[in-house]
Amino acid sequence: MGDQPVPTAILMPCVARAIASAARETAMGLTKDQQRAAQAPGSVAVTAGAGTGKTHMLSERYLYFLQQGFSPLQMVAMTFTDKAATELRSRIRQTIVQQMSDRPDLLAELEAAQISTFHALAARICREHPDKANVSLDFAVQDEVDSPIWLAETFAAALEQLPGHLYEAVPFSVMRDVLQALLADPLTAKEALQRDRAAWLPILETMRQQALADLLASEDWHTGQAVLNTHAAPGDKLDVYRLDALEAIATLEQSHDLVTALETLKSLKVNVGSQKNWGGKEVLTTVKDAIRALRTLAEDALKAGLITLAPNEFDDETEAVLPAIREAFDWSWEFLQAAKYEQRFLDFNDLEVHALRALADPAVQDYYAQRWQVFLIDEFQDTNPIQGQLLERLTAKAILTIVGDVKQSIYGFRRADVEVFKAWQKRIHNNGEPVELGLSFRTHHSLIQQINQVFAPVLDDLHQPLEAHRNEPLEPTPEIQLYTVTVGEEHKDDKATDTTKEPCQRVEAQKIADLVQEMLNAPIQVHDKPSGELRPIRPGDIAILSRTWGPLELYGNAIGARDIPILQAGGGNLLETREAKDAWAMLRWLADPTDSLALAAVLRSPFFAVSDRTLYTFAQSLPEKTSWWKHLQTVEDSMLARACAVFKELLVARRTEAPTRLLQLSDRLTGYTAVIANLPGAERRLADWRGFVELARSLEGGSFDVLAVVRRLKRIQAEEVKIPRPALAGGDAVSLMTIHASKGLEWPVVIVPDLSRSLSGDSSAVRFDPALGVALKLEDEAGDRQKSALYTLLEQRKKADDREESKRVLYVALTRARDRLILTSASPSGGSLDILQPGLDGLIEPEAVAFMPELAKPMPPVSPPLPPRPTQILAHAAGAGLAELPVTALSDYALCPKRFEFCYVQGHPGYREGDGSGEAAMAIGKLAHKALELKIRDFDELKKHAPDLTDEQVQDALNCAERFHHAPGFAAYREGALQWELPVSLSLGGITFNGVVDLVGEDFVLDFKTDRTFQPEHHQFQLWAYSQATAKPNAQIAYLRHDRLHTFTPAQLSELAASASTLVNGLVKGDFAPTPSETSCGICPYVEVCDHRWH
Q1: What does the angle CA 76 – CA 148 – CA 726 come to, to the nearest 5 degrees?
Q2: Which of 175, 485, 617, 835 could form a disulfide with 170 if both were Cys (CB 3.0 to 4.6 A apart)?
Q3: Span 13-26, mean pLDDT?
């Protein structure tokens, strides 16, 4: 590290005196270790245990550099979440106000200082050096929701266009899985694809020898060998196996014929032997136990495959297909990058890759070396290798402060690598020790002592014992409690009683609910962090932290049944929720009414709540080769007839409404959300419904095409993209969340359940390592996937890494507790409980929870709480409260604010008497747009896109589209660089207006109309918005039925800006006063229900 001398000499004497005073005050608020870290003159690495005040130390460290004369604009502070970055900025701001109140200039600079996430810093580098980073000037950053959706769709397109000869070398299914994995970590993949067998053969041999050495050094091995050498019974059948075992042991110790020796041990029998020959039952049992232990060790060794590992034919096959995979990877990578460049966005991985590319230029490195001279980085244990390379290029001449804790590195699935932190610690301190913060301000003394004892043997060399700042008396004394469900022999032998994991987990859930209720009823005393005093416990003081989201609903139901408020803030996949499945089924049916499965799902759902008996009767009466929808239109059952009427109304609306509007209409017609608002977990259900509607809105992109949204949803599901569920606001309720989600949080009482859950496996088709290469699972002649030697090597490395990370996950979970820590398990052993066992033995005596069949029954659903009485009554208008609208909403508001209110505020579908010609006209116009967009010139092809329209209507739409291709007045708009159906957004008055421009040229936007009347003034605000959103000076309407073009000139568009602003202000304020007229009411779909219509 190149530590830069601090420029104290530039400080004026009066400022220096103020700084010295501030320094004395600061030092008083720091522990000795915190002070060593905060006031280190050069670079420093800090290990900060859980709850040891690292954010306070970092803010004081920032202050220290300000006192040395650095400006906030010369400093970078980084962490890994926006929330943490906001908190750090706030803490620094508070520290400056308290310690340097005479420097308001620093507060001003602080607001512009780089205090952010890694990704925000990378984005800044890319924006400031787009040429060097090879990114578009105006790129946007995709978030963690949009990115996987886009990638799933674009990756599918890449696979379809991949050169055919590559599939001759690698089957499609293998190619898809391999490329998907490699593209998720492209820089590592590029390095791995350059490696060959020479890179991993020496490692393989080292690992093989180490695995054998570990086997021979294990305690069970030595014990078993000693027993077999001590006891003998010549002539006894068991003694034959004893001698075989000793011979196999000798063979292994000489590293000869390893496979045969292990197979011999694996095949040993213990169902033979005479007590008489062995001198009694005790000796015989001892020998049998020794043989069993050796047999288990051999089985495990063979299963792991390391000791017997050698290159095989699948390594040869992998090497044979690697050239094709390299070519496919390069081609796919370029395909995706070109698509992102064209669409002007980057995902989080891209930010790191392109920022690294920019920093490869020495001039860019020099630019930032001069700009940023101090770096403070929090949560460094979560850094990945690419971020490590970024820091190397950014901090070569800077003073660096890194803060982290290897014991809390739990984001391996995000490519976080603890070795990066360790390497930087060594780089900063050479062979010296980093500063350690070991005084916990979070956990009570009695509890922290037990946590130290538990993790000392579990974490081994990583363990850092913590001391406690808090030692106030608490009753009962804080301690770790462990409860394990135990099935008695009477239930094990009872075949009528189900004692599998699921019923045991229900018993565990009931025990957790009992414990929560007991604590609240007592109530026990807990430490109140803001006041520092003791107070009675509240529901919000309790958290249940599970490794996965799966069992949390079970625990929540058990607690909720006791009328205790619970909060499951989010987590899991939105598309797997019941509400998303219901809404998706509705869209599937609207896209294809012959989809009988989707129709059945909608009928059973809260949309209609048709009983299974009714559906069974309906299905039994179904004529052969008849769809459910066709049959539904003939039945007389009142409930089904009502459903049929609703479906018909939705099909009519499908022609003119967007998918999200169809979902809103289906809700209004059926009362779906009113139903789920009265089901268990109502708040969660309603949030999931709203979340799916928002997802559908993002997928529709301003179009009205239901089928397109359904296809995108199917692609998302096929690619297993996980869409996060919307978060719920917290309150005074028991929190249920995953351990990963709890990182950085704390509670007086923490319950860690489900400890016997088996650790999840990983069956990836491909594994890769930048230093060793790429390994595949390939099919043998029988069609079974087999592992290459390199695959086995990387798999065992991954298993070892995962097991170590599981220890760290448990450390994070247990150190969230301030006063009480409760562990529970659905069985006495297994999973995480086995990992903790070395630390629990002799320290924590588990309390058995007797399995009782009545507690193992599925729990009845919990009724939602009644809504509270309103605390106030609105006496004035509350405003529209709208966040997003289609661009056409401006035109609707201009025509009549009441029309706007009916449509966008009330969600009224509209009604007009007559022959339905208005709806037909809209459907024809929509189909004409489709013909132009897809360049469809054939009647039969166009008919496929509107099977519900008559042949005359389809021909009418085609004729309109053909006029654009042939009319001389449109000739200038058929040539040049054109963009069809371009989605746009425009922000006005806090509202985002979304739309799709039919056609965009170099200096114009153009909108197609199939209206029979020529009324451009009705659409002027729509065209103005398109012009503003695309920065095009001209806007045109092509009236296809009239072969006529209307142009809004730049001057006219400029004049419309003030009127548009007035319109937006009115709708934001909720001003929906009607403006009836003969013209506007004549075309209004709400004229029949409006009391203010023109007479």
Answers
A1: 80
A2: 175
A3: 36
